[in-house]
Amino acid sequence: MLLDSHAKSIEGRFSIGEVAKSTGTTVKTVRYYDEIGLLKPTMHTEGRHRLYTTAEVWRLELILTLRYLNFGIDEIRKIISGEISVSKALDWQIEALSTQQRTLSNMITILQRAKENGIGEDSLHHIHDLVASISANTEDRKKFIFKKIKESMIIDQFPYDWKEPLIQSIDGIFPKNKKITALQSSAWNEMEELLKDSQFHTEFRQSMEDCVNAVQQYSVNQDLWDKKTVEIYSRVIDAVKAQHPPESTAVQEIVEYYASKFAQMLQVPVTPDLLRYFMKVARISGTDRVLRFWELRAILNPDMECALKAKKLLYQGIMWKIAQLEEVQIKKKQAISK
């Protein structure tokens, strides 16, 4: 429904200027939230000017409050949509701000010491120590995570041509930006705790052993495997974007193609057991801890989010295929028994 182009505050509807003024923000900011889909007005005037309802003004107030509390845009989107609970989001933000608080406290202490020593070369040495200590803490965390993941991935057991790509995949875990969100900060801490869990390492090594055994036994060429995986995942990502369900023709064609290539490599027919083995080799399935590791990786590096969604859809598609094959096997047995 379009209203008169000169309408203002009619029936609880407000122009973008009124909304910006009443919430203490700018027209540019309100317009930006519309463009990124965070706050889209449900109505416009005949001249296509935005009109906001009281509920939408309240939503803007909520967005501005969360932004003030340093929540990122993606986090706000997930909170408003209900994808993550408010309680969980608050836990993440408290943890992130506590980390920042500790860092700022350390900064203040060292700067005060530098000032107490007088303004001069000694002060600069103290300031240098501050930057060095912060950098060292970050690097120590990265080294710890890199070392633990490398151990669990049993990289040394893979053929030479597989080692470098696997090491590069570990590098892809670390956040790309210096400033990380509350969600990433929480994921970073959770991953550290996960990597201190001996049970996780046992489960992760087991998930990698199927892969390394297949690579060694069938002399799988890493470059060829990687190219084939990229090809498959690009198709699955398209299916994710198109919102195709696991049982759809689009997804099942990908499953059949991928499974057939794997079956050819092993020179065996496509069976439920082969598909289960394939999921292990391709690292599509795993224990709760292992799957959580991949989820944390996608949080820390958002570039991996599409790959994670593709992995989940491929897993669901294969599980659907397994159920179909097992149903056929049951019917054959029943027919024979008759």
Automatic annotation (TrEMBL):
The keyword Repressor does not apply. Residues 13-82 form the HTH merR-type domain. GO terms for molecular function: DNA binding; DNA-binding transcription factor activity. Gene3D superfamilies: 1.10.1660.10. Keywords: DNA-binding. Pfam families: MerR_1. It comes from the Bacteria. InterPro entries: DNA-bd_dom_put_sf, MerR-type_HTH_dom, MerR_fam. SMART domains: HTH_MERR. This is MerR family transcriptional regulator. It comes from Brevibacillus fluminis.
